[in-house]
Amino acid sequence: MALGLCAASSSGGSGSGAGEQLFKAWASQHRREYHSEEEFRYRLRIFLHNKQKVDKHNAGNSSFRMGLNQFSDMTFPEFRKKYLWHDPQNCSATMGNFPRSSAPYPKAIDWRKKGTFVTPVKSQGPCGSCWTFSTTGCLESVIAIRTGKLLNLAEQQLIDCAQNFNNFGCSGGLPSQAFEYILYNKGLMDEDDYPYQGKNGTCKFQPQKAVA
């Protein structure tokens, strides 16, 4: 599996010299530093292997394209160990038996095609904060659908401030409990006013700057 985003890939020659130059440019762009020639060569081989998979995919007739990104010098086992959870959450949100209405459901809805209702893709980094992105993404879209205004809400506020609602910052949490925090806390700030750090911090919520 190539570690690439769904975007157009960078072009580069297939020769080792051109490949190495492309890798150096990529490493500079993503501020990668390698502490030995051995490490540099190891990451170069992984990078070229991932690029080959990206190029092969893009040469086909898939409905999406792949590209190089900040993970392209990592193997998938390395990526999985650093960024993905190993065990499923066993909680009311994932284990409950919730009834559905009998109304007919559409096979699919792509809100991106219906207007400006979805914020761009975000990265949580190595922090286990997926619950905050689920919360803000849902709230951002609901507000946009209701008001026509798309906000970019602060995941970092939830990481730093929602512990009293049984959330644990970068160690996990639940959207349902995050919504409770927002309700009783009376607001969530904008990303620009409370930027994402991807690590646990002290709560810096300013009620006068709440936008949702």
Automatic annotation (TrEMBL):
<dbReference type="GO" id="GO:0008234">
    <property type="term" value="F:cysteine-type peptidase activity"/>
</dbReference>
<keyword id="KW-1015">Disulfide bond</keyword>
<keyword id="KW-0788">Thiol protease</keyword>
<dbReference type="Pfam" id="PF08246">
    <property type="entry name" value="Inhibitor_I29"/>
</dbReference>
<dbReference type="InterPro" id="IPR000169">
    <property type="entry name" value="Pept_cys_AS"/>
</dbReference>
<feature type="domain" description="Cathepsin propeptide inhibitor">
    <location>
        <begin position="23"/>
        <end position="79"/>
    </location>
</feature>
<comment type="similarity">
    <text>Belongs to the peptidase C1 family.</text>
</comment>
<dbReference type="InterPro" id="IPR013201">
    <property type="entry name" value="Prot_inhib_I29"/>
</dbReference>
<keyword id="KW-0378">Hydrolase</keyword>
<feature type="domain" description="Peptidase C1A papain C-terminal">
    <location>
        <begin position="105"/>
        <end position="212"/>
    </location>
</feature>
<keyword id="KW-0645">Protease</keyword>
<dbReference type="GO" id="GO:0006508">
    <property type="term" value="P:proteolysis"/>
</dbReference>
<dbReference type="InterPro" id="IPR013128">
    <property type="entry name" value="Peptidase_C1A"/>
</dbReference>
<protein>
    <recommendedName>
        <fullName>Cathepsin propeptide inhibitor domain-containing protein</fullName>
    </recommendedName>
</protein>
<dbReference type="Pfam" id="PF00112">
    <property type="entry name" value="Peptidase_C1"/>
</dbReference>
<dbReference type="InterPro" id="IPR039417">
    <property type="entry name" value="Peptidase_C1A_papain-like"/>
</dbReference>
<dbReference type="InterPro" id="IPR000668">
    <property type="entry name" value="Peptidase_C1A_C"/>
</dbReference>
<keyword id="KW-0865">Zymogen</keyword>
<dbReference type="InterPro" id="IPR038765">
    <property type="entry name" value="Papain-like_cys_pep_sf"/>
</dbReference>
